[in-house]
């Protein structure tokens, strides 16, 4: 009897991990940062959703909150399982809860780099060709949680003598809500200049190889011949693809492998996820973002 009970207990114990693994997730939710309108974000990432659903065997949904913080809060609250964050967004997530997510991959450029730039731009017919020409005019930022659309220019511009306190150097600072909104606002003349992101590779006329300008060109929102670059930041580390730490390890392994192999599996899908040309997705760790985390911590301290 004792031997029978022991064997039963052992067989039950061996079965439990498999049962738990099958029951641990019933769905998988992917957050997509702002930067372009919600429908375009859904379209660009639908292929990833379908691949993930086939790989995980559970329903996979895309979520496109109106702002960056919607994705960040979803990750912090556990309602989102994965997202491609900007470096500043990852910094906020980590500073709020270091155990919420883990960075696993980072997008590379076609030359193998993992940095990009914050790009200042204006309409060519405005006569604005530099930040000096924007004195007394209106500058647009994107989202407060954007690395290139706010954090980096808010640090580098003042260091170069261009205060971003409204009314000090620029007549006003306006938050547009996202990269696409900034590009449209500049193009329409609603603001005099703005900042957005690009890899800085390729041709200006194409919106460079990847970034918000490239996506705007692809969508027919802007003709880059009507625009001029007026400022460029120092290189910025590409933000990470993050996964919720509490996910089962096999789920994290499957999703990491899926995204890492996306460039070979479906180049067009990788293009959509990367907002343009990419060399693929490479492994990355938290260490790559320690500097951005410190910058964000200092900036938040100034505002408190």
UniProtKB/TrEMBL annotation:
<dbReference type="InterPro" id="IPR005770">
    <property type="entry name" value="PhnD"/>
</dbReference>
<dbReference type="Pfam" id="PF12974">
    <property type="entry name" value="Phosphonate-bd"/>
</dbReference>
<comment type="similarity">
    <text>Belongs to the phosphate/phosphite/phosphonate binding protein family.</text>
</comment>
<protein>
    <submittedName>
        <fullName>Phosphonate ABC transporter substrate-binding protein</fullName>
    </submittedName>
</protein>
<dbReference type="GO" id="GO:0015716">
    <property type="term" value="P:organic phosphonate transport"/>
</dbReference>
<dbReference type="GO" id="GO:0043190">
    <property type="term" value="C:ATP-binding cassette (ABC) transporter complex"/>
</dbReference>
<dbReference type="InterPro" id="IPR017797">
    <property type="entry name" value="Phosphnate-bd"/>
</dbReference>
<feature type="signal peptide">
    <location>
        <begin position="1"/>
        <end position="22"/>
    </location>
</feature>
<keyword id="KW-0732">Signal</keyword>
<dbReference type="GO" id="GO:0055085">
    <property type="term" value="P:transmembrane transport"/>
</dbReference>
């Amino acid at each position: 009897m004792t031997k029978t009970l022991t064997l039963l207990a052992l067989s039950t114990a061996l079965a439990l991990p498999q049962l738990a693994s099958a029951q641990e997730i019933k769905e998988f939710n992917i957050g997509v940062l702002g930067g372009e309108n919600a429908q375009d974000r859904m379209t660009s990432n639908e292929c990833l959703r379908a691949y993930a659903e086939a790989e995980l065997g559970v329903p996979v949904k895309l979520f496109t909150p109106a702002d960056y913080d919607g994705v960040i809060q979803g990750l912090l609250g556990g309602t989102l399982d994965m997202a491609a964050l900007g470096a500043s967004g990852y910094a906020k997530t980590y500073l709020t809860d270091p155990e919420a997510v883990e960075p696993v991959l980072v997008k590379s450029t076609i030359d193998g780099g993992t940095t990009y730039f914050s790009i200042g731009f204006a309409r060519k017919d405005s006569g604005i060709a530099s930040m000096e020409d924007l004195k007394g005019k209106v500058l647009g930022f994107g989202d407060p949680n954007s690395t290139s659309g706010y954090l980096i220019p808010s640090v580098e511009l003042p260091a170069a003598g261009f205060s971003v306190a409204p009314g000090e150097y620029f007549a006003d600072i306006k938050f547009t809500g996202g990269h696409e909104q900034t590009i449209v606002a500049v193009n329409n003349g609603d603001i005099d200049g703005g900042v957005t992101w690009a890899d800085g590779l390729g041709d200006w006329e194409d919106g460079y190889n990847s970034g918000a300008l490239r996506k705007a060109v692809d969508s027919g929102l802007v003709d880059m011949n009507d625009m001029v670059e007026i400022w460029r930041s120092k290189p910025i580390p590409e933000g990470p693809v993050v996964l919720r730490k509490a996910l089962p390890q096999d789920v994290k392994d499957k999703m990491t492998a899926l995204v890492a192999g996306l460039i070979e599996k479906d180049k067009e899908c990788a293009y959509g996820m990367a907002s343009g040309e990419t060399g693929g997705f490479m492994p990355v760790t938290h260490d790559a973002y320690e500097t951005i985390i410190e910058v964000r911590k200092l900036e938040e301290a100034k505002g408190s």
